[in-house]
Structure formats: structure tokens, C-alpha cells
Amino acid sequence: MPVYNEKVMEHFMSPRNVGEIENADGVGEAGNPVCGDMMTFYIKVKDNHISDVKYKTFGCGAAIAVSSMVSEMAMGKTLEEAKEITPALVAKKLEGLPKNKFHCSNLGAQALNKAIDNYLKKQGKAAKSKKGGKR
Amino acid sequence: MREVYLDYIATTPVLPEVLEAMLPYFRDAYGNVQSLHNWGDKAREAVEDARGRVADLIGGEAEEIIFTASGTESNNFAVKGLAIAQQSKGKHIVVSAIEHFSVLHSAKTLEKWGFEVTEVPVDKYGLVDPDKVAQSIRKDTILVSIMHANSEVGTIEPIKEIANIVKKSGAIFHTDAVATAGTIPVDVKEMGVDALSLAGNQFYGPKGAGALWLKKGVRIIPFLDGGVQEGGRRAGTEDVPAIAGLGKAAEMAKAGMGTRAKRFSALRDKLIAGLPKRIEHVTVTGHPTQRLPGNASFCIEFIEGEAMLMLLNSQGIAVSSGSACTSRALKASHVLIAMGIPHEIAQGSLLFSFGLDSTGEDVDYVLEAMPPIVDRLRQMSPLYSKFLKEPKRGKK
After folding, report:
1. Contact between chains at A61 and B307 (C-beta distance less than 8 A)
2. What are phi and psi of B221, to 5 degrees?
3. Residues B55-111 pLDDT 10s
4. CA distances from B66 to A66, B53, B251, B304 (A)
């Protein structure tokens, strides 16, 4: 098996918040199946807070664990706080990812960011921040 | 938990008889083959005995066998060593698009050294068309290297026909028979090849034991310079235990080949017939009939191979995949891509390979374990939800 730590394995085996949100306030997609990983994040927003977050993920063990971790980190946060979630932070929370998985599989923060931008755009206050989040 | 190893293509275990044949050469008869005393004699006898058995497995002569440390070494040695030896006649070589990386990357190295390489495409089954080989051969073609079978998709290539074409052109023909030697009948004379690679860990011999068969009279440039071992073509103290094990494995493979192949292909056919019945949107990769007896390879749509491997492993099932995520290079299998399989489908590649310890119950266990795993990952897959929302998309 790939060298995943216990934390990553635990999130892979029991991923949190899997699914889609009907009538989501924001939807964001990152990655593509050609490179092997693709994630779609759905958010519900209430009083500037993320009141619900779900996702669907196509990809390897790391990609699934990352999505699960991002959903946990984002739940209940303000939009500003949620936008602070970076791939590096996600990897840290997962207690590390294999080097070769860091970039291609660590797309959760990017997808979440896009979902938030999508929400803000719908709200008519399009995000000024650069799209796609930090890599 | 039940443990089911279905990754014999990655490596086979060493048979007890093979281990027995190896053991004396670690502690008792530990001499150096080149030494001129009793210790050396015992080691030499073991190596020469093994040479005869390996030659016998593939219908060659003992003196035509060069022992190496792996199939990879044999392929590197053949491709680079034969090309360099022939370079005064031309600098063009031909390989297929689905060769093992030890052939493809050797060809890349030759390009850096000033050679030209033509890659012959394959069809959707992974078959090399002999006519395409003929079309790619030029006046300055000195070497053609096409594998006997591809272990990833199981397809067996029409080597005899290809060899006939290459022979007419005057080029040297090498075949990577790592997936076939010891598994299905291989006869170098009947095939009409000039060089052939094989590896012991594909047929219950030890790892670290391979061989290159090189037809008498064909020139090759050695890779390892040094002493006179292997007729001066592969210097370095002989790995006597590994070679003895390879010899024993070759002998047993030859004797048991028919029964083994019959058993493996029954298991293969059971899985190939059973899996698409249990799971929708599954395709079998490789040729439907011209395939290795123990190979059952699939692409499971909408999900990714590594995640499947991990969940299968949690059920005690060991298999492999050609998905991007399972490769260190993070690229989907070049074999599946060369066969025209789209990237997103190639990501769902799964390869089951059967061996001596495999049983019909193993197949039943896999058939039970697979549907919930596939279902779980599909429920999580954005590609699957998109597919479900687009009913117009026809079934493949």
C-alpha cells in the first residue's frame, strides 16, 4: 500500500460529509480525471458561516482523505476563515502526505475556495481574490 | 481475515523445491564459480546445471544463456548492447508502444546517444500488427524489440509472424518474454528470435535471477566490464543460489506448464465472466482469447484504481492497477493509453493475476468483495453522479 499515515488511512476508510447538497449555495470543482483526481465541493451558507459542506471525490486514497479533512475544517467556519484553508494546512492536519501526492491529490482547499467564490459571485459580490485559491 | 494474493504478475513466491535447490549454495557449497578448487567446482556445476535447464525451458542451447539479475537487466542489456554492437550498420530501432519500461526507457537512452526509435502502435486489444512492424522497418534498422506478451493486459503478440518480417530485413529481433517464459510454451527456434529476456520471479524462482538468451553468433556489447564470467559478456561474481533456484524453477515450469496453464485459465475465465455480471460499467482489457492464462484485467468506470486497491487490501485481497495514482510517476499506464483507452477510464484499471495457490474460492471471495467496494467509491464519485444525471450517455 502507499505510505499513508494512520490519520490519512482513518479519513480514507471513514470519510466525513460525503455527498452532494441539493440547491447548494456554492459549488466548486478542482482537478480532472486525466491527472487522476477530481473533487466537487458543495456548501450551504448561513449568516456568513458555512452551515453545511459536502463533496464528491474521484481519486486516490490521499484525494479522499483530503476532501474529508477539508470538509471537517470548513464546517461552521466563517467564509473568511474557510478561505484561509490552504493545501499546506490540510496536509498538516492530516499529519503529512506522501511527497508525490502533495500536489495532485491536495485539491480540496482549491475546490472549497471555488465553492465560496461561486457563492459570493451569486451574491453579486464577486470575489476579488484570485480564483482557484493557493497551490 | 481471508488472505488472497492475486498479484502473481508482480511476483510469484519461491516454490519449496526451488528454495531447497538454492540453500546449499549459501553455506555449504559457497565457492566462487571461477575458483580452481573443489569449492569452485561445486558452484560451477550448479551454475552449468541451471544453464542447461533454463536453455531447455526455451528450446535454446546452454551456451546461449547469459545469467543476469533481473528481467529489467536482460532487457537493458539486449536493447542497448545489441544496438551498440550493430551501430556501424545503422542507427534505427523499432519497439512497440506497450513495451515494459526497461525496453522503452532503454530506447530513450539510445535516442540520447544518437539512435532513432520508432514506436509501433497497438490496436484496442494491445495487439501489434506485423504489417505495421514491416512498415516501420527502414534500411538502417538494426534492432526490433517487441514483447512476447504484455503482463498488464495479458495480450500475447504474434511473435513468429513479426520475427519472419524482421528476419527478412536483416535486423536483429529481441523479445521480452518475461511474462511468458515459464508460463506458456516458449521456443526460441520456433519463434525465430535472436534474443530473448526472461525472469525467474515470474515462474516461482527467486527474485534477482534473470537470463538473456542470445543466439549463437549474435554480437552484443557487455554492460558490466570485468572478469570472464558468463563468457565475458556479464562480469561479476555469479549469484550461485539465485541461478540454482532459477534452474530448478525452469525445470519445474517446463514439467508443470500444461497443468498450471489449464488451472489458471479456468480461474481467469471465471473472474472475467463473473465480474461484469456483478458490476455495471466494467470492461475487460486486453485480447479476449490471445491472453496469458493467469491474467484477468479490467477497467472499472468512474472510480480510481488506488482507492480500489486500498479497499481490496482491507479485505485481504492483493491486486495491482495501472492508474496514475498507483504509479510513482503519477501517469496512467502507457499500455492502456496506447490501446486507446481514455485517461479517466484507465484510472479505474485493476489487474488480477492467478498462480499456484489460487483457488476457485478466491474468485468467489473477490466476486463477493468487489461490488460493495465499487459501489462505495461510485457513491463518492463526481464522475458517477454526472453520468447518472446524463441518461443520454449510452452504455459502453
Report:
1. yes
2. -95, 125
3. 999 999 999 999 999 999 999 999 999 999 999 999 999 999 999 999 999 999 999
4. 49, 13, 17, 41
Contact check, Cβ <8 Å, A18/B307: no
Nearest C-alpha in A relative to B322: A36
User: Does the distance separating the beta carbons of B379 and A61 come in below 8 Å?
Assistant: no
To the nearest 10 degrees (0 to 180), the angle between helices A6-13 and B305-314 is: 90
What gap in Å lies between CA B390 and CA B373, rounded to an integer? Answer: 23
Q: What is the DSSP letter of B258?
A: H
Which positions in chain A have a beta carbon within 8 angstroms of at least one beta carbon in chain B?
Answer: 1-2, 12-13, 15, 18, 20, 29, 33-40, 56-64, 100-101, 104-105
Catalytic residue flag (residue A60): no
Mean pLDDT across A124-135:
52
Q: Are strands B282-284 and B141-145 parallel, antiparallel or unpaired?
A: unpaired
**Distance from C-alpha of B11 to C-alpha of A116, rounded to nearest angstrom:** 48
Q: Helix-strand-coil percent breakdown of chain B, rounded to 5?
A: 45, 15, 40
Residue-wise pLDDT for B204-221, tens only, equals 999 999 999 999 999 999
> Could you tell me if B195 and B5 are in contact, meaning their C-beta atoms sit under 8 angstroms apart?
no
How many percent of chain B have pLDDT more than 70? Answer: 98
DSSP string covering A72-87, please?
HHHTT-BHHHHHT--H
How far out from the chain centre does Cα B358 lie?
19
Residue contact A35–B324, C-beta within 8 A = yes
Higher pLDDT, residue B322 or B222: B222
A11-62: pLDDT as tens digits: 999 999 999 999 999 999 999 888 788 999 999 999 999 999 999 999 999 9
Task: Name the grid cell of B136.
Answer: 516501420
Contacts of B325 in chain A (CB under 8 A): 36-37, 59-63, 101, 104-105
DSSP state of B7: B
Measured between alpha carbons, how far is A24 from A122 in angstroms, rounded to an integer? Answer: 11
- Helices B240-278, B38-58: crossing angle, 10 deg rounding: 30
Measure the CA dihedral B305/B310/B311/B313, to 10°: 120
- Look at residues B46, B52, B19, B49 and name the one whose alpha carbon lies nearest to residue B32: B46
